Amino acid sequence: MGWERQSSGEGVRPEKCRKCFLTDFPELIPNDAVCRTESNDTLDLVMLVLTTHSAVERRQAIRQTWASFTQNNTAAKLRHVFLLGRSRDARHMRSVQEEQAKYGDIVMHDYIDSYGNLTLKTLSGFHWLLKNCPNIRFFLKVDDDVWMNVPTLLNLLQTKDTELQTAIGGTCFHKIEPIRNNASKWYASFESYPHPHYPATARVRPTPAPSGGAQCGASVTGCTLLPPGGCVHSTVHERVWRQLRLEPRGFQPTSMETNACCVERKR
């Protein structure tokens, strides 16, 4: 499918296409046994933590604080993994392999790890989740600069169980305008997103700037994010891409205004 052309000469991303980009990347660190239990018991929650190679201290802080509830992935009902792509720096790759050998909580797929590839990180993470964790009730996708109140989150997931079967949990924002300033980290070209507003989306930071933050939902919601044959382009921001996938399927963000889901760490 070709791109439409505007008078400005810019190519405009089509709303849908077939085989737009890879969705099932080779696993460099598969970690496919994380969700296994002795009796194949159902897990309440698997936490997918989006991180980068250089964020060693953040990962360690998470292991020592809110991810400690998984008891090094031996707890009866909880699991966590850190999601990474491939680094061009051989030292980073060796370091992460050593970290995985020590902690056993890293999943790495074969795409270049970069801010622009967050959509691919999310896609590969959900591929991994649905392939290796069929016995889960809920997922949490969270950035490594977010602090989680895990006991309160678990309680919230229980009380919002029905809503989260058809929703993504977070704080909802509507009619956010794309940032067209190419000096911004969150720059969105007309080519990548031609519309005047982003779709309604769920996130946790109460500011208009795009941010990943944290989102939670039932396992059935994660299934809908994986494109069967057609898909939405990966050139839009990860959170926008996610809602472009969910909205046509009847999913809508559900607000969690109490900050029970998560609280962003002050910088």
- Give me the count of strands: 15
Average pLDDT over all residues: 76
Q: How many helices does DSSP assign? A: 6
Based on Cα principal axes, name the global outline.
globular
Span between termini: 43 Å
Write the element-wise H/E pattern from the N-terminal end onward. EEEEEHEHEHEEHEEEHEHEE
Task: Write down the oligomeric state.
Answer: single chain
Largest β sheet strand count, sense and barrel closure: 6 strands, mixed
- Low-pLDDT sequence parts: 1-11, 202-212, 228-232, 257-267
Task: Provide a brief overview of the structure.
The chain is α/β, with parallel strands linked by helices and 267 residues long. It has six helices and 15 strands. It has helices spanning 56-64, 90-103, 118-132, 150-159, 219-224, 238-246, and strands spanning 4-5, 11-12, 17-18, 27-29, 43-50, 78-86, 106-112, 136-143, 146-147, 167-173, 201-203, 214-218, 230-231, 252-255, 263-264.
Structure description:
The chain has 267 residues and is of the alpha/beta class. 24% of the residues lie in helices and 25% in strands. It has helices spanning 56-64, 90-103, 118-132, 150-159, 219-224, 238-246, and strands at 4-5, 11-12, 17-18, 27-29, 43-50, 78-86, 106-112, 136-143, 146-147, 167-173, 201-203, 214-218, 230-231, 252-255, 263-264. Helix 3 crosses helix 6 (238-246). The N and C termini lie far apart (43 Å). Residues 1-11, 202-212, 228-232 and 257-267 have low confidence and may be disordered.
